[in-house]
Each structure stands twice: as structure tokens, then as C-alpha cells.
């Protein structure tokens, strides 16, 4: 997305193609075209260029070299901040953000150290922006700003709540200025600032400890979660979730058919959700998949004791929608959904369990799970269980 951001700022005359990283055959085909066997890459009249930074340098030199600085001093300063990102801030990203997406194992000691270092690095940037500059080098954006924005975006969305962001007012103003720019919105879509810090799950924990922790969570929830104060329900959500996530093919149809006989409309309710695209969104699969994942990451993991959902990206290139059909405890929208930073950008409609059209919608979303399957008139591109 950083390359997209740079290209939109440059108004570069290039075409973008979504590689669809989940398609191994397609990915390997693309990889053969690049000297490093990695994505992204840029096709040029000479030969193909790989790696984001290299592509950006090529495009900037072609369309607007000033983004790399006018003088040798400016060029060195821009490179300084790019190196600062890749050498210092990246370490914090790896220890704090990567575990949230299970890209790295959780290490609390290293994460704690990285968090302290992050404050130090952000203070350095705050001091730099105290010179009154709108951007790192003055009144005009450079590649240093583009790279820094990419590195800080995950922290601003998943880790740094408002109180912490307020410790760095100049940096926060710099970030929101870029975040709301047409080029950033076009490249990244919505950047939704963090209200609640997202913490990674400890994937090293053994099964016995998981069970023990779950028992503790249940005890706490009975005291704290208002959903536990609802009258008991005959419907077994955990058993239903297990069957749905573990079954294959036509078995899901049978499970959903049986679901209607067991469904308790007083204790549970069904909902359709759709993310409200910005005008610039819905064009690229990877961007919409990011929107889907960011929404799901912001829902408390413990809510799985009360909900089940299939949430995915549906449509084709240029016209994607993030949608889902959910089942949850109670008959109102729960706090866990309302507290999600993406809630205000979601259209949410309660489904009628006795309505045949709504029943068909539920069945489509929960059983049509092969890429390309038609769901409510749109082809499935990606999906996740909640």
C-alpha cells in the first residue's frame, strides 16, 4: 500500500494488479517475473523491479525527484528518517504488532522493551516536528513522510489509544494530516484510530492452560458481561460453532438446516453487517481484506463465548464489499460490537429468523465458502470465521 500511496501522490501513470496472495499458483507465476521472487514488483521497459522502496525510488525519479530532496543535505535527511524507520521503529513493529496477527510469537519481555523504545522514538519525531514543519522536511511531503506513515499506521490503529497519542501532539497532527489526505485514503482506505489497545493472544500456551484460562474467563464474565444476565438459553453456541468450523462441504447445509430447529430466538439473534465503503474503496481485494481483518481484530476475543459469524469480502475487482452474517447472544447490538472503532462505518440489519429470504441469506453466508461461490449475488473472495 505504501507503493500505492507514493504513486497516487506522484499521479504516476501506472496500472495496478492485485496478485491475490492466497492463490499459490498465481503468486508463483508472478514471482517468476521478479528478480527477488517477491511481491510487489514493477514492470518496466528495461526489466522488472522488485521491493517496495526500490519501486518508489524508480517512480519518484521518473515523476517528481523532489520527493527525494532537492539538495544533498535534504537527500541525506530523507534517507536518515527512512533508515530510522527500517532500523528502529521496525523492531518495535515486529515485537508489538506482528504477534497480533500471529506473524510472530508473543514475547512479553521483548514487547515491553520495544514499547519503551517506541516512546523514545516517537519523542524524537515529536521534537523534529516541533520546528513548525508540516512534514519532516518542511512544507512539502517527501518519501520520508510516506515511509514513516506506513510504519506508524499499525501503531495508531491497534496500539496507541488517544491518551497516548496526546503525548505527541505534533506527531499526531502530522499523522492525521496525512491520514486524511486524498492520496492516503485512496491507497489505504479508512485509517481508524485506536480506542482500545489490541493485545496478541499467547500462541505458546498449552491446551491445559487454555482450558484453565477459559474457566477463569467464564467466571469473570458471569460477573461482568451483561449477556450473562440474560435468561438461560437452550441453544448450545459452542457446539454449533464446533460443528460449523470443523465440517466440510454439504455437511454444513445439514447443520444449518438443523440449526433452525434448535435456534432460540429469545436468547439469540441474527444480524447482517456491511462495511460502508468510501468512494475510493472496494477496488482492490487486499485493501478490503485488510478492512475485514481490522474489524475482526478489534472485537474482544472473549466475545466468541457469545457469538459466531462468517465475515468476508464479496464481489469482483473494482466492486468489493465487506459483509457478514452473525449470530450473537441477546436481541440487541452488544457492547462488543458498539465499542469497535469500525462500528460507525457499518450498516447493521437484524434478520428475521422466520423470514424465508433471511433464512436463505444466512445459509448462503454460512455454507457457500469456496472462493467464487455466489453469496447474495456476489462472488466470495475471502472470508473469516469469528
Note down, in words, how this protein is organized:
This protein is of the alpha+beta class. It has three domains: 62 residues, Glutaredoxin, CATH 3.40.30.10; 123 residues, Glutathione S-transferase Yfyf (Class Pi), Chain A, domain 2; 153 residues, Translation elongation factor EF1B, gamma chain, conserved domain (Alpha-Beta Plaits). Helices cover 48% and strands 13% of the residues. It has 15 helices and eight strands. A six-stranded antiparallel sheet has the order 6-3-5-4-8-7. Strands 1-2 form a two-stranded antiparallel ribbon. Helix 1 runs antiparallel to helix 9 and helix 4 packs parallel to helix 6. The longest helix has 26 residues. The chain is globular. The protein starts with a helix and ends with a strand. About 2% of the residues have low confidence.
Compact summary:
By secondary structure, the protein is α+β, with helices and mostly antiparallel strands. The chain has 15 helices and 8 strands.
CATH class of the largest domain: Alpha Beta
Dominant shape: globular
Largest sheet descriptor: 6 strands, antiparallel
Low confidence ranges: 217-222
Spatial gap, N to C terminus: 26 Å
Radius of gyration: 23 Å
At the fold tier of CATH, the topology name of the largest domain is Alpha-Beta Plaits
Oligomerization: single chain
Total tally of structural domains = 3
Tally of separate helices: 15
Number of strands: 8
Tell me the strand order in the biggest sheet. 6-3-5-4-8-7
CATH superfamily name of the largest domain? Translation elongation factor EF1B, gamma chain, conserved domain
Elements, N to C (H/E): HHEEHHHHHHHHHHEHEEHEHEE
